[in-house]
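URGENT: need a sanity check before tomorrow's submission.

F., can you look over the L-ascorbate metabolism protein UlaG (Beta-lactamase superfamily) record below? I want to be sure the sequence and structure line up before it goes out.
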Amino acid sequence: MANEISVRYLGHACFEFNFNGTKVLLDPFITYNPLAKDIAVESIQPDYIFLSHGHEDHVADVAKIQSQSGATVAAIVETAGWVRQQGVPDDKVLEFNFGGTLSLPFGKVKMVYALHTNSTPDGGYGGVPCGFVFFTGDKKIYFAGDTALTYEMMLLEDLQLDWAFLPIGGHYTMDMYDAVKASAFINCKNIIGMHFDTFPPVTIDKDEAKSVFEKAQLDLHLLELGDSITL
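Structure tokens as predicted:
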């Protein structure tokens, strides 16, 4: 079977992967995203949902989407505990932690470090934020989650990543300049930007971002809302 991998951008840090027919949703924040008003939450039917951390702009729609789709939700232990409190059945929650790798029908997913903070929307303790590396078919894809620049990223250098999803908006995460450094740390040239333009503090100059990455000989993709690309 051909390895068919694509991703659709749903705004902020929310992406829907299609791994050979298995749909995997990352950090669902649509209903309260002012830029995502044209995305119908009711139409989203993932098989899996992965949460990088518990901040509302990454989990706001998880309970609704899980309920309508029956998706399995994967997150770090404490954030997974909050997911259960939202009414998600225990058998639909996968909790794991740093160093852990899930073996799933579409491939493997390893939890990796992110430098950020974490709490749940109700102010509870959400554990530690994280990122994920997806190993599916012949592709290796890094989803950084919300993170500042950190030397921990160098641990990914030898993976020979095909794609990396990096925050570039600054203020709450690393900015475009630190994201260029991060790209060098992880040794990946194909970058999809995220966590930008949603709110005033993370508004960026897209032309500047493209120029900064181009000067570093990196391929930056800034997807428009609802756009899909093949990975």
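My own read: The chain has a mean pLDDT of 97. Residues 5-230 form a domain with the Metallo-beta-lactamase; Chain A fold (CATH 3.60.15.10). If you see anything odd, call me.
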